[in-house]
Sequence to fold (118 residues):
Amino acid sequence: MKLAHITIQSADLEASVGFYSKCAGLKIVRDMRDRPSNRIVFMGDDEEGTLVELIDAEKPYKGSGVSMGFEVEDVEACRQWFVSEGYEPTVIRWLGEGRGFFFVKDPSGFSVQYITKQ
Fold:
């Protein structure tokens, strides 16, 4: 069994597409924004098999306790980039052996984690 995709109900579909493009390196793999309702964009990274489904929603995600994570080479440099771009990432939590992570919110308030590769 394989995880097919993560769905995020977005308050601002265009901002979400921009976030996942710029902040996660994902590309549009299926674009259904031309539909009159239920506008959807699938973004992915075919190398890793990552697939995020963004849905233009009247009632976007506003919950807590759910996140998704992306592995990065340098968690400190990644966090600094977010700060320089005007985002408000959490502090880095260190797990030992040089492994650490932080969270940042996407345009809908969904928590996205960036963690050092093992």
Observations:
- The helical segments are 13-24, 75-84.
